[in-house]
Write a structure and sequence with these properties.
mainly alpha
């Protein structure tokens, strides 16, 4: 009987080890959710910025696509190797 109870307490479903593993899984999922919520908030802020203002759209085009305005001169400075 003692062996059966020990098995149930240490190894079977609902055991101490199983409970510890489930708590670790819940904590991992909670951390991942927090990270994703922060990422979503940043993306939502960026979308709002892009929808509301021309300046944000222009900055995005300049940085991501290398676009320049009419009558601007683009200079590319290349560092020498060596």
């Amino acid at each position: 009987m003692l062996t059966g109870l020990s098995y149930r307490l240490l190894i079977a479903d609902g055991s101490l080890i199983h409970t510890y593993q489930l708590r670790a899984d819940v904590e991992s999922a909670r951390q991942e959710n927090e990270d994703l919520q922060a990422r979503n908030a940043a993306l939502e802020a960026e979308v709002t910025d892009l929808k509301s203002g021309q300046a944000a759209l222009e900055a995005r085009a300049r940085l991501s696509l290398g676009m320049v305005k009419k009558d601007e001169t683009f200079y590319l400075i290349v560092e020498p190797r060596g």
